[in-house]
Amino acid sequence: MKRLGIFGSTGSIGVNALEILRAHPDRFQVTCLSANRNSELLARQALEFRPEAVCLCDEGQVEELKRRLAGTRIRVLQGQAGLATMARELAFDMMVGAIVGSAGLVPTLEAIRTGKDIALANKETLVVAGEIVNELKTRHGVKLIPIDSEHSALFQCMVGERPETIRRLILTASGGPFLFTPSEEFEHITVEQALRHPNWNMGAKITIDSATLINKGLEVIEAHWLFGVEPDKIEVVIHPQSIVHSMVEFVDSSVKAQLGLPDMKVPIQYALSYPERMRNGLEAVDFVKLKQLDFFAPDRQKFRSLSLAFDALKELGTVPAVMNAANEVVVDRFLKKQIRFADIPAYIEEAMERGPRKTRPSLEDVLEADRWAREFVARRIDRRA
Fold first, then answer.
1. Closest by CA position to 324, among listed 312, 336, 339
2. Cis link prior to 275 (omega < 30° from 0)?
3. More confident residue, 215 or 291
């Protein structure tokens, strides 16, 4: 039985992961769970799965969580320090890294240092510190298996293939809710409109990232570190149906693609059971009903954030950390209706232009770049308001 630590259990990835565990109680055991603010759902999950420990990042709700778990032996931790402690001290086989944003970096590093395998949905971990993660992964002999549908697709296409035979990685993107919206209308896009993703049911932050296409840029950087493929061999194509989750082209011009209906349970289950494949009751693709699959190039002028992510990949060092932190701030401010949708790439670009630049950064360098970008962008927004 595989012991799991699910970091981010109340988000969409965590909730889907627990659904898979309910269907396979003989295969998995929950050792720990964590949430950002949703103490009510975390408590319900803890009472159902009886982990050894839980962690709540919103320290203002910890006492309420303790009250809900009174009479159990479940240990309650809190804050970022609690996440790191849980990742480091508890005995489990695989960490499901489903925390949104750069907050997932430190607990992931702690889990790797103690020899735990990683099922990674938190793309920001590799975006901001890919070189550090890979060095630790190699040193401690752990497996890192992607959960993102695109990276899971690439991973599955590469099984049994030699890295030197890869010509291109092709990541697909749905295009989000504004694929066919003229750029001059971006100034008037509302939060409610941006949260209406046409294909996927995701959390608010990831949904906005998909609307700006920066989510795809983050995935390009993640693919570079996951698969060791050079930046000029990674491409993005728009595929509105979200049936082909990504493709790999090889040196003989053949292409492998992984297909399926847009349901995150498939890549989550594959990461948890790898190298096995488990049965499930999910719906399969009906190609007769589907009729056609469309592909075309993204408009990188209209979706400026995607181009900024490619720029960050060219520079690497601390630049991706600055870009990612700036994006997290502007998305939060957009969701709070403090800036316009059209303002998002401008703030990110300004932070990237002015931010610290260090090659081969240490963890301290990365964290400092992250802190600098958050403070810089917040000040710029507040000043302009």
1. 312
2. yes
3. 215
